[in-house]
Amino acid sequence: MSGIRIPVEGIDGSGTAHATSLLAPNPSPMTLDGTNTWVIGRAETVLVVDPGPDDDAHLRRVADHLAERRVVAVLLTHGHHDHSGGARTFAEMVNAPVRALDPSHRLGGEGLADGDVIDLDGLEVRVVGTPGHSFDSLCFWLPEDRAMLTGDTILGRGTTVIAPDGDLADYLRSLDQLRAGAEILEAEALLPGHGPVLPDPVGVLDGYIAHRRLRLDQIRQAIRDGARDARQIVEIVYAEVDPALWPAAEMSVAAQLDYLKSL
Predict the structure, then answer these.
(1) Which of 8, 59, 156, 213 is most buried (most C-beta within 10 Å)?
(2) How confident is the model over 22-46, as a mean pLDDT?
(3) Is the residue at 80 inside a domain?
(4) Which residues does the UniProt record annotate as the domain Metallo-beta-lactamase (predicted)?
(5) Considering the domain boundaries, does residue 4 fall inside one?
């Protein structure tokens, strides 16, 4: 069972029986409260997922937190800087390799791919390929906790953008895959890269899928109403969204337009 922990004071320290979040101090409209650096393990050896940005204080805090434990590897959900920027520095601090799907973010040679299984003193971590937000996005399934680390594929609040290195068709397939898996595996928690732990995986994924379908319908209608480019579509479809987030919305609209053209 997951044994979800949600501290009263906030996200830092939240997680499940074998996964704990250490919150990086990089809050913003895009990163929400900051990046969740996840520590996975139950004994003397651990994995660290997404060390976060290259912030010396945060990286040292994570290393100090694990002073009595050995970091077997650093794993990346994807290569965006707010997740991976500090990976090399942290890996050198703790003398561990960095494993990622994208070879450009690896340190030590060994990568990660869909279907890989990491055995950590009997605690399994299963790699799930979930391209879409970015081309190299991965999720990590912890069977013993019935919990999925989702990086930016699923956020603790709101919905994710489709980055320029992502693809909406891939993302929709990834959401469908995660939704099916959450039901079959009886998932109890989603552990996102930003924001709080989510205790209703099936409900959250249903909401994400419905939201994406609604946005596509809204974009189709905006085009019928005369919108001629991504910016005009954003002004119509995302009118209720903080204008500070409109540049990110334009990225998603561009991905949605590419998707609609491909149908």
Answers:
(1) 59
(2) 95
(3) yes
(4) 34-194
(5) no
